[in-house]
Amino acid sequence: MGFTDTFRYLYPGKIKYSFWDIRDKSRKENKGWRLDYILVSKFIENRVIDADIHGEYWGSDHCPVSVTINLQDVDIKSFQQQVITEEPMSGEEEERKSELDMEDNVEQDFQKLSS
């Protein structure tokens, strides 16, 4: 699909977990899984400044994940062109999208982020 795992992009060999089973002592023993991700398109992967998995926070069987992305000088027109020229959706994907009534407004989203 052309997405990049932001944490793995910055830290290819680092082992950190975002989920631990609450039925045993897996968190205490740090025996977990990495189930929570922040993905970005290939177009902005080189703008990822930092990504982290915050295992120090308790209160759930999952912990927060975060990413910092520099979007200050993203060329929205180039981004839109990149999105438009990606592989077209299959008939099944197109049907599923219309069933969910999902419409993306990329330009509006970027304007919100940059203000």
Going across the biggest sheet, name each strand in turn: 1-2
Structurally, the number of domains stands at 2
Uncertain segments are none
Structural class: alpha+beta
Short note summarizing the structure:
With about 120 residues, the protein is an alpha+beta fold. Helix content is about 30%, strand content about 15%.
Key descriptive features of the protein:
about 120 residues, two-stranded antiparallel sheet
Model description:
The chain is of the alpha+beta class and 115 residues long. It has two domains: 1-70, no CATH class; 73-115, no CATH class. It contains four helices and four strands, in the order E-H-E-E-E-H-H-H. The chain has helices spanning 6-10, 76-85, 91-100, 106-114, and strands at residues 3-5, 39-41, 48-53, 65-69. A two-stranded antiparallel sheet has the order 1-2.
Element layout with pairings:
Elements: E1 3-5, H1 6-10, E2 39-41, E3 48-53, E4 65-69, H2 76-85, H3 91-100, H4 106-114
